[in-house]
């Protein structure tokens, strides 16, 4: 094929495809969790004592009693094989943001040569995949390849149905033989435990006696793009890097806002229904779906769940979106910035904490007592974000998310807290008020008694804040669409654990001085506001004024991943993770190495890809057009007709610039002698990236000069508008 043949073929195939029709949906109750080995199924199939034991493990997150493992394994296997599964897989979450699985058959060969299907408690509780090729940041040398996976009992096993059969999937933790976390689940479970412990301390001081296990909840809104698979197949950049490295924005982008909340296109609706059906069968509570701001962009949000389960479900959701898209001849882009000039995609992580006895601690209550508790937990969050804002930036740092943060469409790379006008005023009052100075009751109740019911109106949301209070939870809006939510949840739980522990200690020492409880609470809140109130910001986070003001307030702006990741190596971050027991120094260091490596690799892959595409696709198109133009000009000159030469000069000049730019970029990639990982990252961020944008600019300008019939890549207009 030459010129735009591939494009023409793609458009032809798309416009002539047989539409997939909408199925009559099954009843929700009939689909719900049919593929999950949940508590109800365990109760139905396990002896009473075994069920009681495992239920307790699930609620408390404690270790599974080995004596019940065999019975659970047997029931699980019987259930799975009855549903047609011949294989089981320990599913785990390496540090790549992806999901990994190792499949094994239930088959067991007997001495007499016969086979039976077998699955023991030991196998359920522990597996041993060869972990050597998963990133570990130097924790394990490859010759010591053993890594262990073990069932995380708090996350239920499920059956994954594909056209090629069904597999029993067991969500597991992944650790090295020396016990170090090699995945994203172990730290999440540890951060929940740390937060539970610290929260219990505070709750006890507040006078609660019956306190259930404290957990965090997460509801993650997933944004994504859909384009036809035919277009993706003809764009090497989309196939290999998940985004367009070249492409001129179309004449019509998102300026009419006609896509946002508009009618969902038929083809996409059929796709969504299929996605939701799969999710329901897996017990994932898909709840909202709508078009997003950019053409071709959509969003899916589930009902919130316990953080650990939500995190596993979020990984599954990304897998389901990708797989289902393929089935429908679509390509799902989870990249944060697949198209320049239109909005990118985020994943808003809605986060709250609570338990079954006291409810959601971030929900303002009706009584002064509940309000005091709410303010205290809110204050703890404020302190945490102020103290550890750079950590929050670091856990959302990826090459792809950098394109979005601070691009005036997503929150800036600078952490602040949005509280909403009412709550901000209350905290201001606590800070300025004479409340803590006086022990008089009337004054004391001020700030605790007076909280009016906070409006939970969506219109009041500040969309420019990276971290916003939204009525009964915080919404971490800066998280990238392709990321695992585990990292952000670990950071939030851990900084809250640290803050709650500090709060508990401060309350105790104030009480010891003889202050009554309300007085102690107000003293602590006032102190939080004095030391950490600078992180609260209700204005426009996109504005240059805020960036200046934030700097004056001492808030740190970390524009790129190269700036943000080194935060993980700072002493105060190491202290935080060590004292909460969430990550050891070795584990933390390994995370820095893995994420830095991923950053460098993704930019280097893109650079190489750009050079390749520019040389083999773009440059030839320019030359072909030039040759056609110049021969036309000379043919016309032979006839005595003078024809414009401006286009020829322009295309020639752009061709030259592209040639030079590619040369410069190729030389730049060849550099390998970096003293440190930090230096290498900086080189990517501040040397390679600007060269890439320069090359892109030339190519995108060329796209508006070269004859459409010669342009080799599907255009933005085609990808975003043809479905
Ligand atoms: P919006 O787009 O207005 O932010 P959505 O309805 O798209 O709202 O998403 C809100 C998300 O927040 C949902 O996943 C929802 O389940 C979740 N959520 C609601 N309440 C809580 C809570 N207390 N804790 C955690 N997540 C919550
Ligand atoms: Mg939303």
Structure characterization notes:
With 723 residues, the protein is α+β, with helices and mostly antiparallel strands. The protein is built from 24 helices and 17 strands. The protein folds into two domains: 32-183, Roll (Ubiquitin-like (UB roll)), CATH 3.10.20; 192-598, Creatine Kinase, Chain A, domain 2, CATH 3.30.590. Helix content is 49%, strand content 13%. The strands form three sheets. Strands 9, 10, 11, 12, 13, 14, 15, 16 and 17 form a nine-stranded antiparallel sheet that branches. Strands 1, 2, 3, 6, 7 and 8 form a six-stranded mixed sheet that branches. A two-stranded antiparallel ribbon has the order 4-5. The longest helix is centred in the C-terminal third of the chain and has 54 residues, at 585-638. It is globular and about 100 Å long. It starts with a helix and ends with a helix. Residues 435-447 have low confidence and may be disordered. Magnesium ion binds next to loops.
How does the major sheet shape up? 9 strands, antiparallel
Structural class: alpha+beta
Instruction: Give me the oligomer status.
Output: single chain
Bound molecules: adenosine-5'-diphosphate, magnesium ion
Unreliable stretches (pLDDT < 50, length at least 5) are 435-447
Helix content: 40-55%
Report the CATH C-level class of the largest domain. Alpha Beta
Total number of domains: 2
């Amino acid at each position: 094929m030459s010129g735009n043949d591939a494009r023409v073929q793609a458009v032809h195939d798309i416009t002539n495809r047989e539409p997939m029709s909408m199925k009559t949906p099954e009843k929700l109750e009939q689909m719900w969790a049919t593929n999950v080995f949940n508590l109800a199924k365990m109760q139905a199939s396990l002896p009473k004592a075994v069920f009681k034991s495992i239920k307790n493990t699930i609620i408390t997150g404690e270790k599974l009693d080995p004596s019940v493992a065999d019975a659970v394994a047997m029931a699980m296997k019987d259930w799975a094989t009855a549903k047609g599964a011949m294989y089981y897989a320990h599913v785990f979450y390496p540090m790549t943001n992806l999901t990994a699985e190792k499949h094994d058959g239930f088959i067991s060969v007997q001495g007499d040569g016969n086979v039976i299907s077998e699955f023991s408690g030991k196998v359920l509780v522990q597996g041993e995949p060869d972990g050597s090729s998963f990133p570990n940041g130097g924790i394990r040398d490859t010759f010591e390849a053993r890594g262990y996976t073990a069932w995380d009992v708090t996350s239920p096993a499920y059956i994954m149905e594909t056209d090629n059969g069904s597999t029993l999937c067991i969500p597991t933790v992944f650790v090295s033989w020396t016990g170090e976390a090699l995945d994203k689940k172990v730290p999440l479970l540890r951060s929940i435990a740390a937060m539970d412990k610290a929260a219990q301390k505070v709750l006890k001081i507040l006078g609660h006696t019956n306190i259930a296990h404290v957990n965090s909840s997460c509801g993650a809104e997933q944004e994504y793009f859909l384009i036809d698979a035919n277009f993706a197949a003809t764009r090497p950049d989309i196939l290999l890097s998940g985004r367009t490295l070249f492409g001129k924005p179309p004449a019509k982008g998102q300026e009419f806002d006609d896509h946002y909340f508009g009618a969902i296109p038929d083809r996409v609706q059929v796709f969504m229904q299929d996605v939701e059906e799969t999710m329901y069968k897996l017990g994932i509570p898909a709840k909202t779906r709508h078009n997003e701001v950019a053409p071709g962009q959509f969003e899916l949000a589930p009902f919130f769940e316990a953080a650990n389960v939500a995190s596993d479900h979020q990984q599954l959701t990304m897998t389901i979106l990708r797989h289902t898209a393929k089935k429908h001849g679509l390509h799902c882009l989870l990249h944060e910035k697949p198209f320049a000039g239109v909005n990118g995609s985020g994943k808003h992580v809605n986060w709250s904490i609570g338990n079954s006895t006291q409810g959601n601690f971030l929900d303002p209550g009706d009584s002064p007592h509940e309000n005091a508790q709410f303010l205290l937990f809110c204050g703890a969050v404020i302190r945490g974000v102020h103290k550890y804002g750079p950590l929050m930036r670091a856990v959302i740092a990826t090459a792809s998310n950098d394109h979005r943060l601070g691009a005036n469409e997503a929150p800036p790379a600078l952490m602040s807290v949005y509280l909403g006008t009412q709550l901000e005023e209350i905290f201001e009052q606590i800070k300025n008020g004479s409340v803590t100075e006086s022990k008089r009751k009337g004054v004391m109740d001020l700030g605790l008694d007076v909280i009016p019911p906070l409006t939970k109106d969506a219109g009041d949301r500040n969309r420019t804040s990276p971290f916003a209070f939204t009525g009964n939870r915080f919404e971490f809006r800066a998280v990238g669409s392709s990321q695992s939510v585990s990292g952000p949840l670990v950071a939030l739980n851990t900084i809250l654990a640290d803050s709650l522990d500090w709060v508990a200690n401060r309350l105790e020492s104030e009480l010891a001085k003889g202050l009554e409880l309300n007085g102690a609470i107000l003293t602590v809140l006032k102190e939080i506001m004095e030391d950490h109130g600078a992180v609260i910001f209700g204005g426009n986070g996109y504005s240059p004024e805020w960036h200046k003001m934030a700097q004056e307030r001492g808030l740190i702006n970390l524009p790129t991943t190269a700036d943000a990741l080194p935060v993980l190596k700072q002493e105060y971050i190491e202290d935080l993770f060590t004292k909460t027991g969430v990550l050891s120094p070795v584990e933390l260091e390994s995370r820095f190495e893995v994420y830095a490596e991923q950053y460098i690799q993704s930019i280097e892959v893109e650079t190489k890809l750009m050079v390749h595409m520019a040389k083999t696709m773009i440059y030839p198109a320019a030359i072909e057009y030039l040759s056609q133009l110049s021969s036309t000009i000379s043919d016309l000159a032979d006839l005595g007709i003078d024809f414009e030469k401006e286009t020829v000069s322009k295309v020639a000049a752009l061709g030259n610039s592209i040639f030079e730019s590619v040369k410069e970029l190729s030389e730049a990639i060849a550099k390998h002698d970096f003293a440190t990982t930090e230096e290498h990252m900086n080189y990517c961020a501040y040397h390679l990236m600007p060269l890439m944008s320069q090359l892109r600019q030339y190519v995108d300008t060329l796209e508006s000069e070269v004859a459409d019939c010669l342009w080799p890549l599907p255009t933005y207009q085609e990808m975003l508008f043809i479905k």
